[in-house]
C-alpha cells in the first residue's frame, strides 16, 4: 500500500473517468479545526476508489468556505492508496468492470454532489454512509466484500483517535439540496 506524499495529488482529468476501480476504501482521517481559538480534533470520512498502479481518486465533500455549511463534491487524483492522516480504513470489494465514471455519475444522478453540513460543521460520515448505500443499491459492491453498507455505517458511528480505543460518536445528519 502506497502512503501519502504531499506533492502527489492533482485534479482529476477526463481520462481518469475511464480508469478501472479495483476496490473502494472508506477512510477516516484526523481533522483539526480551530473554533474560537480552541483546537478541536474531529474525524473526517472520505471515499477512495482504488485505481491501477497503486493510486486512488479521493472523493470528498468539502466546505465552500469557513463561514458556510454548504459543501461541494471534490474528486482528486492521488498517487497513493492510503492517506498519511488516516486513522481507519475500511476496504470494499467491487464488481468487475466498475469504472471511475460509474462511481462519479451515480453520485450526481442521486443528487449527492450538493450537501449541507450541520451547523457544527459535521455530517461527512452521514454523506459517506449514504453514498456507500447508493453504491450497494447500484450493484457496485461485490457480494463477497468483507464490509457492506450497514457495516460501514456502524463503523462510522465511532470517533477514532491514535492510540485509543474507538468511542461511540453518533453520526450527525446534514441534508442534500
What does this structure look like?
Residues 24-177 form the DUF7770 domain. The strands form two sheets. Strands 1, 2, 3, 4, 5, 6, 7 and 10 form an eight-stranded antiparallel β-sheet that branches. A two-stranded antiparallel sheet has the order 8-9. It has one domain. It has helices spanning 100-109, 124-137, 149-155, and strands at 9-11, 23-35, 38-51, 55-63, 70-78, 86-93, 114-116, 158-159, 167-168, 175-176. The protein is an alpha+beta fold and 177 residues long. 18% of the residues lie in helices and 37% in strands. 27% of the residues are buried. The chain is globular. Helix 2 runs antiparallel to helix 3.
List the helices and strands and how they pair.
Blueprint (H helix, E strand, L loop, with lengths): L8 E3 L11 E13 L2 E14 L3 E9 L6 E9 L7 E8 L6 H10 L4 E3 L7 H14 L11 H7 L2 E2 L7 E2 L6 E2 L1
Antiparallel strand pairs: 1-5, 2-3, 2-6, 3-4, 4-5, 5-7, 7-10, 8-9
Q: Summarize the amount of helix as a percent range.
A: 10-25%
Cα-atom radius of gyration? 16 Å
Mean pLDDT over the residues: 92
Q: Helical element count?
A: 3
First and last CA, distance: 36 Å
Shape summary: globular
Query: How many strand elements?
Result: 10
Give the low-pLDDT segments.
Answer: none
Q: Describe the sheet with the most strands.
A: 8 strands, antiparallel
When the domains are counted, the total is: 1
Structural class: alpha+beta
Amino acid at each position: 500500500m502506497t502512503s501519502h506524499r504531499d506533492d502527489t495529488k492533482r485534479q482529476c482529468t477526463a481520462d481518469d473517468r475511464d480508469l478501472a476501480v479495483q476496490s473502494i476504501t472508506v477512510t477516516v482521517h484526523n481533522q483539526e479545526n480551530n473554533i474560537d481559538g480552541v483546537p478541536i480534533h474531529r474525524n473526517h470520512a472520505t471515499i477512495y476508489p482504488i485505481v491501477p498502479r497503486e493510486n486512488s481518486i479521493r472523493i470528498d465533500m468539502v466546505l465552500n468556505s469557513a463561514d458556510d455549511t454548504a459543501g461541494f463534491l471534490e474528486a482528486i487524483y492521488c498517487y497513493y492508496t492510503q492517506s498519511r492522516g488516516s486513522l481507519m480504513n475500511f476496504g470494499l470489494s467491487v464488481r468487475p468492470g466498475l469504472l471511475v465514471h460509474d462511481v462519479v455519475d451515480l453520485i450526481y444522478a442521486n443528487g449527492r454532489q450538493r450537501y449541507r453540513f450541520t451547523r457544527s460543521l459535521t455530517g461527512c460520515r452521514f454523506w459517506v454512509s449514504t453514498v456507500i448505500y447508493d453504491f450497494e443499491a447500484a450493484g457496485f459492491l461485490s457480494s463477497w466484500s468483507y464490509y457492506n453498507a450497514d457495516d460501514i455505517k456502524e463503523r462510522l458511528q465511532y470517533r477514532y483517535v491514535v492510540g485509543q480505543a474507538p468511542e461511540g460518536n453518533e453520526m450527525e445528519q446534514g441534508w442534500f439540496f
